[in-house]
Structures are given as C-alpha cells and as structure tokens.
UniProtKB/TrEMBL annotation:
Sequence ranges assigned to domain ABC transporter in this UniProt record: 32-269
Region annotation (Disordered) ranges: 1-31
Name the record gives this protein: ABC transporter ATP-binding protein
Biased composition (Gly residues): 18-29
GO cellular component labels: membrane protein complex; plasma membrane
Annotated coiled-coil segments of the chain: none
Entry-linked Gene3D superfamilies: P-loop containing nucleotide triphosphate hydrolases (3.40.50.300)
Entry keywords, A to Z: ATP-binding, Nucleotide-binding, Transport
Any GO MF annotation of the entry: ATP binding
Amino acid sequence: MTKSRGNDVEAPPAGSAAGAGGAGGGAAEGGARTERLTKVYGTGSTAVRALDGVTVTLPGGRFTAIMGPSGAGKSTLMHCVAGLDAPTSGRVFVGGVDLGGLPDAKLTRLRRERIGFVFQAFNLLPTLTARDNILLPTTLAGAAPDREWFDTVVRTLGLGERLGHRPGQLSGGQQQRVALARALITRPEIVFADEPTGNLDSRTGTEVLALLRGSVDDLGQTVAMVTHDPAAAAHADAVVFLADGKIVDIMDAPTQDRVLDRMRGLGGAA
Ligand SMILES: Nc1ncnc2c1ncn2[C@@H]1O[C@H](COP(=O)(O)OP(=O)(O)OP(=O)(O)O)[C@@H](O)[C@H]1O
C-alpha cells in the first residue's frame, strides 16, 4: 500500500495480505471496516465531533495500530467499531455484518462471540483461575469450549503452567497473556487491544506485543491496537493515524523512527 492522505484512505481490502479472511465484500469479508463514520458527542455549542467521516479498513489477518494525539478519536473509533458506542452517522461492518442493522440482543451477541478485547488494566475476574478466566466468554455464551483451540491458544501464549493460578498470583505480563487468551478463545473476527502494554515494563510489554503479532501470524487473527507508543506500533503491519477525528495518514510496514516522526508532525509525540 502506498502512503496516502485525506479522509477516505483505505488499507488494503480484507484478506489481501497475510492470513485469514476472504476477498473484500460479502459475508466472507474478514476484519472490520467503516464508511464515513461520524460521532458527535453533545449538542449545540458544546458538541464535540470525535469522529468526522472516517472510512477505514482493518483488514482480516492483519495487525493494525491506531495512533494520534490525545483527543484525536482513537478510543471513539475503537468503541464504535466494537459496537460499544453507536455512531451518529456512517456505517460499521464487522466480518461483513453491518452493525447498524442489528437489534440490541444481536449486537450484544456479536460483541461477545466475534470481538475480543484486551485492555490496559487486564480486566480479569480475581476469583477465577486463569483457566476459568480464559473460558469465560464460552461459559457466558453457554457454549462448549473447543478443547483443541484452547490447548493451541494456551500453548502459543505459554500459559500451560499457570492455568490453576488466580490473577493475584500472576505477574502483570502473565495476566495480560491470560487476557489475550480470553480474547482469542472465541476465534473472534477481530481483537481490539487498548494500550495493552500500558501497565507493563518494557521487556514484558515487548513479549506481549510479540504474542499479539504471533496471534496474527500463527493463528490468523485480526488485531487492532490503540497505542501512544511508537515502539508498540512498530509491531503492526500498518498504522492508521488520526487527528481531530479524521484519518490523516496510513503507514505500511511501520518502524519506530518513522512512527515517531509522523507523530511529531501531528503534534502528539509520545
Ligand atoms: N462520552 C463523551 N462525551 C463527550 N465527549 C467525549 C466523550 N468521549 C470522548 N469525547 C471527546 O471526543 C474526543 C475524542 O475522544 P477519544 O477518547 O476518542 O480520543 P483519544 O484519541 O482516544 O484520546 P486519548 O489518547 O487521550 O485517549 C475528545 O475531544 C473527547 O473529549
């Protein structure tokens, strides 16, 4: 992909790069995308246009970082694409499904079954073991866990020895691995990671980023990560830069230095 500017830049169509996901369009479409997504908070003189006509693709089987200065609209974009927040106008598709057309119950189900979340604060249940935390999405869905997939995820994330431990008995890095395993257990259409290394020291953070990378390369996952950290963004296949609610750039094959330069240009150096 060439670098492009303006508000209608698109990453390559789903499935055009490494990994899973069919050709763009239709039910086989992987990942997620938005069309002219706008989100306005409040009304009248206090209205804030957090997103202003954002058209972007988060391609299936790819790792995309979302960056931009504070207040640029990163969290709003993630929340709208994840169905946690309703857009003011525009459309969101997850795996080819138009979220705007879904009644609440179906949206809740889609979120539970087709979207995985990894947060800065891990958000594990303290009374449950690592195993039960990982299996929680399937338990909530009343579904039988896929033992083979569970074993694959646990092995890939190096959690085999820790399954009986509660979060309080695990290091920060181990807790984030459990959170990542929980996000992957339903084989979601897309995993959203919101500053996933924000609470980790740099060595542990790098390990978690390598595992996110591995979930894309080895397991065919789609990952979108909001981050302020150029070193973290360098693990992604592409970086989407937001400023004032608009996409101002998309960088393919990012390096830490190029990302840092671009962020400086936006007045939001990390
Ligand atoms: N619930 C809300 N009500 C009113 N305004 C909001 C709300 N949520 C976000 N905003 C505003 O929308 C704009 C975008 O916010 P958002 O949190 O998406 O930015 P961000 O890029 O994630 O910022 P940060 O890096 O600081 O987390 C900001 O001006 C923010 O103040």
